[in-house]
Hints:
11 helices, 13 strands, 26% strand
Amino acid sequence: MKIGKLPEPVLVRSVIKQVKHRRKEILTGPAVGVDCAALETSPGEVLVMSSDPITGTVKDIGSHCIHITANDLAASGAEPVGVMLTVLLPEDVEEPEIRKMVQEAENVCQELNMEIFGGHTEVTDVVKQPLISVTGVGKVQKEKILSPDRIHPGQDIVISKWIGLEATAILAREREERLLTRFSPDFIRTAGEFIRYLSVVPDARAAIEAGVTAMHDITEGGVFGALWEIAEAGGVGLECDLRAIPLRQETVEICEFFGVNPYQIMSSGSMLIVADDGHAVVEKLEQAGIHGTVVGKTTGEKARILRNNGEIRYLDRPQADELYRALRQ
C-alpha cells in the first residue's frame, strides 16, 4: 500500500466494520470524517479523545504533535485538556534532542492551557527517526458536541486561514537546500514560519460563537480529502468554487516546485466548517484576526462537485497525501 492514510475502502472494510459498539457510554466511535471519539463519563459530562502519530516531520516535532491533537479535539467542540505521549526514538538519539522535543511540547501546552499527563518513552531499532504518537483528551458538555451526522443540505462551507500551511512549513524546513536553488532565503523563511499558524483552536472558538454544525481539521489528504470525508460523514453532496479555496502564494510556488497538488497536501492550520450562516462565521473569524472564506454549500445530491471557471470536476475518494511524494524527492 502507499504511504499515508489507509485507502477509505480498506479503512471501512478491514478496520471500522471490525469494531463493534457495546458500551452505552461511547457516544461517538470510529467513522470516516470523524476526528474524535466521545465518552460520557457522567450525565451531560463528555470526554473527547483523539489519537495521532506524527510522521511527516522531525523538526519541531514536539510542538507539532500537540497542535495536531488539540486541533482534532477543538473540531469536535471540546476544550483540549491534555495529552499522553508515546515517544519512540532511534538508537542514535542524543539527550539534548529528547529534552528539546519535550520542551517544545510543553511550551505549546502552556500556550493552550493543556498538560502532558503521562505516556511512554523508548529507544528502539524499529524506527529510523523520532516518532511521537499522541492521545489527546478534551471535555465538552454533551449538548455542545459537534458531529458531521447533523449536517444537512443547504448549509455553507467555510475554510479558515489558507490550505497547505502545514506542508508548506514542513517542506521549507525539511527541504531548504533544494528550495534555495530557486527561491530566496527570505521566501523560504516566510514559508517556514507558517508553522505559527498550525493551531486551529482559536478558529474553532470563534466559529462556535457564530454557530456551527460540524468542523473538520484539514490534515492528511488536504482539502480535497477533508471535503470528501465531511460530506461522506454527513451523508450529503457539496458544490465548491475551486477559485474560492484560499491559498498562499508561497504554497502555490513550493507545490509547483515539487510537482505536487496543493489541494491534496497536509493542511493542518486550516479548519473546514459547516454552518447555516457561513458569512456570520467568517465575520467572527475576522473579528478574531483569522482569515475566513465561504467556499461552497452542501447539497441534497450525492455528487461532490468542484466548479472552476465554468468547468466541473467531481471529487474522488481521498488520495495519498502529496507531502510524502514531495519529501521523497
